[in-house]
């Protein structure tokens, strides 16, 4: 392997820049030529591929978003699109790719490897933490801290007005943002797509906790079957005398300076990915499990359900008295 390329794909996540920097610099350290692909797989199809040097990644480790930009590519979903992408990388003599993203990114990478035999390794970059094969994904730590900051502020006003707040957080298919931010903000209930909601139990909990607290907070993951608005309406129906408000945090959760944990995670996985490629690894995602770098095949990495830890959901209930 002499020439490698790096891209970011899917939703951006804080720490992606630290990951790009690590890949570029580890490549150069190993005497490789490194290219950057703009706008994810879209840029691969359209040939938006630029050479990167050590300077091109200077002063980015602390920046949110991704300097390479990102997209969810429709064209790469077709065989013709992937064929065009393959021709573009062959033209530049690119031997291998490192893709930073989530489940969609790795699904695309698997197809590309299958059809064109391109060596690809992945790095987990998504605020949702919905990938197996790594305890945490790049961006998750920053995002949950953003949520905690926002919910703490909402708690101040909720407490002052004796209100119930339903707060919807991101997580299209995953409740991991909701779960950890819920525990750390003392939420009275957390609703996530992976588990069925027992509304009776939640209503009872809200009623019971009233004697101990003047404000109550229910965190709802965006991917929950009902969503924040419906949950807020149900609470209003059950308790017409409660003062209920809904707050949807939205894309604020995806931005901001990456936390120290995300910068270190992205740096470690960037180094590991380049070294992994040089060792002959392909079709796998580099992750960190219990402090150790491990590689997981793409088809296993995209299934995150085991990460929903019953202990975390139990903690919410126990501590919501
Ligand atoms: O993939 C991360 C994520 O933040 C999801 O939690 C959310 O559903 C989605 O991206 C929203 O992305 P967009 O608004 O960019 O389509």
Task: Give a written overview of the molecule.
Helices cover 41% and strands 18% of the residues. The chain is an alpha/beta fold and 321 residues long. The chain has a 7-stranded mixed β-sheet with strand order 3-2-1-4-5-10-11, with helices on both faces. Strands 7-8-6-9 form a 4-stranded parallel β-sheet, sandwiched between helices. β7, α7 and β8 form a beta-alpha-beta unit. It starts with a strand and ends with a helix. The chain binds 6-O-phosphono-beta-D-fructofuranose. The site of 6-O-phosphono-beta-D-fructofuranose has 11 residues, from loops.
Q: Mind sketching the topology for me?
A:
Blueprint (H helix, E strand, L loop, with lengths): L2 E6 L7 H14 L3 E5 L2 H7 L2 E4 L26 H13 L4 E6 L1 H14 L3 E5 L15 H22 L2 E6 L6 H9 L4 E3 L7 H11 L6 E6 L6 H11 L5 E5 L11 H19 L5 E6 L2 E6 H4 L8 H9 L3
Parallel strand pairs: 1-2, 1-4, 4-5, 5-10, 6-8, 6-9, 7-8
Antiparallel strand pairs: 2-3, 10-11
Helix pairs in contact: 1-9, 2-3, 5-6, 6-11
Q: What structural keywords apply?
A:
single chain; 321 residues; seven-stranded mixed sheet; four-stranded parallel sheet; binds 6-O-phosphono-beta-D-fructofuranose
